[in-house]
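job 3f2a | input accepted
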Amino acid sequence: MATSGPDRRPAGESDSLVTACGRRISVHGLRLPPVGRPIRRIALDVGRDQGGEPGVWAALTAEEARTLAHLLLAQATLTESGTEDGSQV
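job 3f2a | predicted structure (89 res):
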């Protein structure tokens, strides 16, 4: 299945970050052009680590991306406040 390319953000806006462990996490729009019904997703690409181990990627619906963002923000708040939520990573 061919893609029509990633949706690009305006110049100057970052669409990726490099974590403290050296992995680049990129986020961009993805459009798949099947006839009659284009598919749009948000692509999350976690790149190779510093040792060269392969990364992973996921194509999320808009709702899945919002849910993931909510979960990440909730964990960031817990981490910054020093509160334990009982879950393990």
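job 3f2a | The chain has one helix and five strands.
job 3f2a | closed
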